Prior knowledge:
Blueprint: H1 6-24, H2 28-40, H3 50-65, H4 69-79, H5 89-101, H6 105-119, H7 129-135
Helix pairs in contact: 1-2, 1-3, 2-3, 3-4, 3-5, 4-5, 5-6, 6-7
Amino acid sequence: MTELPNDTTEKIRSLCADAYQSYDQGDYRKALRLFYQGWLLLPKPQTDFAEAGWVLTGIGDSYFRLKQYIPGCEALRSANHCPQIRDNPFIHLRLGQCLYQIGERASARTHLLKAYRLGGSALFETEEPNYLECIEKLI
């Protein structure tokens, strides 16, 4: 894993904190802008850095909330390749949900099932029931 200078990590961490504050207030577009500001601080290839995983997860989650599922899939798929992020149940949940919404049900089931196996049923408690129903016969 490649490490960033501490000041860059702190800037990204601060931008992500601000982004999640906007996210929690329902301002997903502002959150997205802040996450992208963090993304721009990462040198290429960005996915070599753990911080990229934080940013991409926030980007994917914000796109999900904005019902922009295709860019959400792209961000979450990329997040899944970042160090220390692989096999994060939340990423699999959101990716599965995005895939479900664009009609890729087989891939959606794969990721939703992985989310369930990694994070348990609690992960689905605040989500729409159709996502858990999608994998009920598999669990």
